[in-house]
Amino acid sequence: MSTDILAPAFIQSMARSLSTTDLIRAAETLKQSGQTDAVATLYDTWIRSNGDHPLLYAILFNYSVVLSDSGRLDAARACLERAIALKADFMPARINLGRVYERQGAVGPAVVQWSFVAAKLAEVNGSAITYKTTALNQSGRALEAANQDESAEDALRQSLDIDFHQREVAQHFIALRQRQCKWPVLATSERVGRDVLMQAISPLSLAAYADDPLLQLAAAWHYNKTDVGTPDQSVILSPRALKASGPLRIGYLSSDLREHAIGYLMAEVFGLHDRSQVETFAYYCGPESKDSLHAHFRSTADHWRSIGSLDDAAAARQIAADDVQILVDVNGYTREARLKLVALRPAPVIVNWLGFPGTMASPWHHYIIADDWIIPEDHELYYSEKVMRLPCYQPNNRKRVVAPQQPTRRDAGLPEDAFVYCCFNGAHKISRFTFERWLAILGKVPGSVLWLLGSTDDTDRRLRAYAAERGVAPERIVFAAKLANPYHLARYVLADLFLDTAPYGAHTTASDALWMGVPVLTLSGRSFASRVCGSLVRSAGLPELICPTAGEFVDRAVSLGTHPELLRPLRENLRAGRDTCTLFDMPLLVRSLEALYKEMWAQFEKGELPRPDLANLDVYLEVGRQINLDEVEVQTIPDYHGMWLERLARRHGVRPIAPDRRLIVEKRLFS
Question: Which fold has domain 420-584?
């Protein structure tokens, strides 16, 4: 059949007499030639003329896909409901009907459809298993989005029990347990063991699970290799992208240029760039947004590209067509990242900054931007990228909007005369070890309370019950309702001291606290995520609040809680230095960023672009995942390298490797 544009009258005439096989073939031909309206006309005409056909339910299903893809959800729903009426056990229709319901905001009816699929498939065959796991996974995703975490976890657990090879399902299962503060995080079953979960854990979840940077390096490499993959070829770069001529063309790739933690941090960056040094391109890959911060980014970037609707190849071609020289990946291994796009290498130099707190361990990220606290020189062995350093790694928004009316402690449900410890980090960052340290502090400071950002009701009850089991009255754990950012910032001043989480510490929340004059006590470990808060606290002028050990963290928190007068000079230092400290000096940060870009480009032009060292990370992953991280807090092990060398030696003894390779395996630890 010709792929030329066909007249609707011809399509209608042709459609009536087609067999189902020819109908589907014709529809696919029209679709491939971009004639989506013609596909809809073809299906609609055939359906109207073949109301008694035994395969009508299947054609209705195909038509619903066309309607759904074009946004005609009511019509798609009607087709699927009619298909189900004709064949009640047609599971693909029920799965897709659930998706349509969900897109229309009807999560309950969606879950009803998926639950029907999961409950009715008793026959054991390939199709039944696929339909059932799909239904369970869809239910889990929708329930998670609706904050019904317990039900979501149960759906994903059932799916993993059926097929434990589903890496993405395992990743969501682990993340769900983390955000519910369920310990142990890696909940095993008869069919799903620790090794399965450790193989699948996402780099972001691992950052909150363990302060083990060598394991994080290996796990990031494994995630990239398995979940991102390697494209057949990269995009072709133009001569202009490969040679400097005028300001460097810098691309920022991010899904978070909106009201999001990263968006708040980056708010000033585009506007402060020196246009004689750089030309900025913003590649937005997030959801549609109409908030004021999103509009601000659109107006302050030199060039704005919304690439959410483009596939990876098309988006990569757009970046290459813009002759971008340095592409800054501001997502990394986070939600809505476009790593398959980055893998196409749409720019000569690719940088990892700000979005993901750790190494990418990928073949295509050449640099990671940090500072000398987050990655000291002797920690560079934990990173595949070449380390470049700013005075302070994290940008900040000095134009934060703070609600003018300050709430009282009574408004916030806090006791008037208590010492208030706070932590407004997400619940997924609260490890068992962190929470037990907090309880130890409360136990030693009579009358004190711990003020946390509220999560789901079940999670809040779980934390209070855990406290009660360990002798701390549950009412001493107070939960703050989630508020719009200006009102959230205004209530910070009700707290006396911010207690950080470990190993994934406070980032945006720490700079918010410091901006509002609240001192932050942190425990710096070895990994990137565990050291960011220390960088912020130091850059705000309070290095004495960085603790090197868990014991010192508890002792220092108790000392400040029992002698609150010690906090007065700390608060005064914050107030006096807010406009001059490194943490909030955004012109300095942007100038330094531009200097780093210039240095990166000079290295590229000299043929000295760094090559990521990814050797032998399979061995590190094999050794590292054997540690039960629910029972061992790696951050508290004094001889970290000694622990790794012992485990590597044990592995070599059981399964030796070639002597030349063994030196490569251990070179990171002997550097």
Answer: Rossmann fold (3.40.50)
